[in-house]
Structure formats: structure tokens, C-alpha cells
Design goal:
two-stranded antiparallel sheet, 6 helices, single chain, 2 domains, mainly alpha
């Protein structure tokens, strides 16, 4: 009887772990598919040069091989999931930089405006790998902050002082990373 209860307890407790592992794999699969789509869009719109395409494809292949190696040993562990997420984050940032650099047809940062383009300094820092993970996180936070500020400036009922302060903050962030053409 104790053996049956112990086996039942083990099976019951292992189901959530297996479910979490499968959910993690599905999330990684979705991210890989989105990144592949972003690369295809960059190719379709002439935003990527042949060298950039080759580099991004090699990076994506490396991630697939890393995932395949992890899965060959069983379900993804928490540490393996974190390693894959970091590799996907790095690849995502590279895709963004390659599509927004001045090689090929430079993509505007459409969330900020059709005439807003990344400056060469930011794309070069990303492409060269000189940007740390903390700096990349700060950059992405600032872009999201700009999108939020732009939305608030266009929709919120603000006092003149609030509007001026928000517009100044938006302009400071915009000029730090982007140029307008």
C-alpha cells in the first residue's frame, strides 16, 4: 500500500515539472519561428545584406543545435532554458541591429515614426558585441519608454508643464539612440 501511495505521489508531482518543460520548449519554438520570420522580412525588404543574412542564419543554426543537444539529454532543465533564452535574446538584438543599420535599406523604428532611424553608434555597438546584456536591457527599456511616452503625448489630457516634461524626456531618449530623416 505504501509503495502504491509513493508511486502515485511521484507521478503526481512529476506532471507539473514535465508540463513546465514542455511549455518552455513551446515558448522557445515560438521565439525561433518569430525570429526566422523577422529575418525573412528583412530579406524581403532589402534590409539585410548577404553577409548579414549568413551571420544571422549561422547564429540561428547555433541556437537550434544547442537546443537539440539539450533535448537529446531529456527535457530542458531550468539552466538550459535560461541559456537558450539568452541566446535567443542575443540573436533577437542582432536581428534588430542588422535590419536597422545603414547597410541595405535601413528600417525605420516604426513604433516611433516612419522617419525615425537608429543611429550608427547603437547598431555598431550591438553588431560588434560590445553592448553588454545590461546595456541591451537598458536600451530596450528606453525604446519601450519612448513608445509609452509617444502614446501618452498623443492621447493623454496633460497640463502644459506635464506635456513639456514628457516631450523633453522623449526627445532626450530619441536623440540618444535615433536620428530623424
Amino acid at each position: 500500500m505504501k509503495l502504491k501511495i509513493s508511486l502515485l505521489l511521484i507521478v503526481t508531482l512529476s506532471i507539473p515539472v514535465l508540463t513546465l518543460a514542455k511549455d518552455g520548449e513551446k515558448n522557445i519554438d515560438r521565439r525561433e519561428a518569430r525570429q526566422k520570420h523577422r529575418i525573412e522580412q528583412g530579406i524581403e525588404h532589402g534590409q539585410l545584406t548577404p553577409d548579414e543574412i549568413a551571420a544571422l542564419d549561422a547564429q540561428e543554426k547555433s541556437i537550434r543545435e544547442m537546443k537539440k543537444g539539450f533535448l537529446a539529454e531529456g527535457p530542458l532543465t531550468k539552466d538550459e532554458g535560461k541559456q537558450l533564452e539568452q541566446a535567443l535574446n542575443d540573436a533577437s538584438l542582432q536581428i534588430w541591429a542588422q535590419r536597422h543599420d545603414t547597410e541595405g535599406n535601413q528600417k525605420s523604428e516604426s513604433r516611433l515614426g516612419k522617419d525615425v532611424f537608429a543611429n550608427d553608434q547603437i547598431t555598431q555597438e550591438i553588431e560588434s558585441g560590445k553592448m553588454t546584456h545590461a546595456q541591451a536591457r537598458d536600451f530596450l527599456d528606453d525604446v519601450n519608454r519612448m513608445v509609452h511616452l509617444k502614446h501618452r503625448l498623443s492621447t493623454d489630457d496633460l497640463t502644459d508643464a506635464q506635456r513639456t516634461a514628457m516631450q523633453n524626456r522623449y526627445n532626450d531618449l530619441l536623440n540618444q539612440y535615433f536620428i530623424t530623416k
